[in-house]
Amino acid sequence: MKHINIITVLVCLTLLSACDKSATEHNLSRNNPHDLTALVDELSQHTNNTTDTPDIQPIITPDGKIKIDLSHIKTTQPKADLASYDYPIALDTQAVKNYAKAHHITNKQAQHSLVIGMASPEVLGKVLDQLKDGKYLGHRLTDGADMTLIINTTPDVVADSFDYVFADNFGKGLVLPVIIEPAIPKK
User: Three-class SS of residue 20?
Assistant: First the structure.
């Protein structure tokens, strides 16, 4: 079962409703709350649908720790050319301007970070498919120009890091650094 932080979903929906292009692609009207409800239902079905994902097992190391099997996570999607990338959030939106101002970065950096943040459930779900039996403790996205997804786990998970290239249409080709960060065992 995939777990998605409800705050992440709410932020994504808020930002998505501010995106002219994305709103058009999803047939959203900013004045019609029923369209947003339909999008939430669509996202829930997408993130909760486990029938199309086989039971993926992590790698168990000789010392009994769980290592995330990156062969089930990484995509074959090539990295996008950022110079010509067509972001689904307009550069001049208030969300981009507010994020840029709050984190003292350029609007272009803010635009990039917002799209990556909104697309992050794609990789988070893949990692969580392998973190069963309470191994997942939480996650966070770092703010600013160099956004990173940090996934906190129990101490019996192997620390790791990798770059994830998004394959889904939203954020396709963009790269998000991911860190698997196990808790330090208590002594």
Answer: helix
